[in-house]
Write a structure and sequence with these properties.
Low-confidence stretches: 8-52, 189-201
Shape: globular
Largest sheet: 6 strands, mixed, barrel
Number of strands: 6
Strand order of the largest sheet: 1-5-2-4-3-6
Strand content: 15-25%
Structural class: alpha/beta
Mean pLDDT: 74
Distance between the termini: 73 Å
Number of helices: 4
């Protein structure tokens, strides 16, 4: 009777004969089971893109990418529906998916336009790429200090494009201030396809 390890090794060699002979080295159980069942390890990714796509930035975006960061914060994701967020944000505005950010206003002032470098080029569910601009228009009782919550949309599935950012410390540049409510994607036409939107309407960077 084969032991568990021997049986797994035999199964692996029969199922993936080509890969088993590539290096001749033993494969760990974690690697083997991940490949056998289609799981993917979520390792670190390069800043600015999730898929390595070349992104042409506007001069403003490039300046924000190259300049000094104003803040850094550990990110969490939140969504509407199914036990997620409900209603309007703390400014009385409708949250905008992949735009609205909840902040601690003692650390990041509300109405700040945030340029989050790690979200530039993030591929969203419809295949378009994020331009990096977010809007500090919400707050939350659990958000204290260097923490932010990124609003992803309706339902848990909306979080999928941004999952690599969850629990990650993000680099945030100050891109100015906004009046009223955060614009929806359709309200700010892109000057630089395939980015989803160009620079937002702002009233000047805060000091």
């Amino acid at each position: 009777m084969l032991g568990t390890a021997a049986a797994f090794a035999l199964f692996w060699a029969m199922t993936f004969p080509a890969q088993a002979g590539v290096t001749g080295e033993p494969v760990s159980y974690e690697v083997a089971s991940a490949q056998a069942w289609g799981a993917q390890e979520t390792g670190a990714t390069d800043e600015g893109s999730t898929d390595g796509a070349a992104i042409e930035l506007t001069s403003e975006q490039q300046a924000l990418m190259d300049g000094d960061a104003r803040w850094s914060a550990s990110a969490r994701l939140y969504h509407a529906g199914g036990g997620g967020a409900t209603g309007n944000d703390s400014l009385g505005c409708r949250p905008v998916a992949m735009r609205t950010v909840a902040v601690d206003p003692r650390y990041i002032p509300r109405r700040s336009v945030l340029f989050i470098r790690e979200t530039v080029g993030m591929r969203l569910a419809d295949g378009t790429l994020h331009d990096g601009y977010w809007y500090a228009s919400d707050t939350g009782g659990a958000i204290r200090g260097q923490k932010i919550d990124l609003y992803t949309g309706h339902g848990r599935g909306s979080m999928q494009p941004a999952m690599r950012l969850n629990m990650r410390t993000l680099t945030i540049a100050d891109a100015g201030r906004f009046d009223g409510c955060p614009p929806d994607w359709d309200d700010t036409p892109s000057r630089n396809a395939p980015l989803m939107a160009a620079a937002p309407r702002v009233t000047g960077a805060s000091n």
